[in-house]
Write a structure and sequence with these properties.
Order of helices and strands: EEEEEEEEEEE
Structural class: mainly beta
Number of strands: 11
Largest sheet: 7 strands, mixed
Radius of gyration: 13 Å
Strand content: over 45%
Distance between the termini: 37 Å
Amino acid sequence: VQLQASGGGLVQAGGSLRLSCAASGRTFSSYAMGWFRQAPEKPREFVAAVRSGGTTTYADSVKGRFTISSANAKNTVYLQMNSLKPEDSAVYYCYTRPSWVRDGVRSSLDAWGQGTQVTVSS
């Protein structure tokens, strides 16, 4: 599986960004796609996920501000990030996994894209 992420950048606090991640070469029919993020000297943390059936999951820190969606026909996942805060600054990594793997933690079954930097200035 190959994942290609895009859409990061620099934005002021309160602004918005939209990340995209396109997957190719996936062989399992039921899957989840989502995002983790990693700030300097911090562990990688879960942000949001969407399953091929449409179910979404969010970290508490982004609920109400971030929206994850997918275009299944395009094997693409989007992360709309609104009301951004400086603490949202991190490298954002998209991933895909079989849908039976639970959300919120990393798995050895994850396939990762390259990270995309999000920087929110105060």
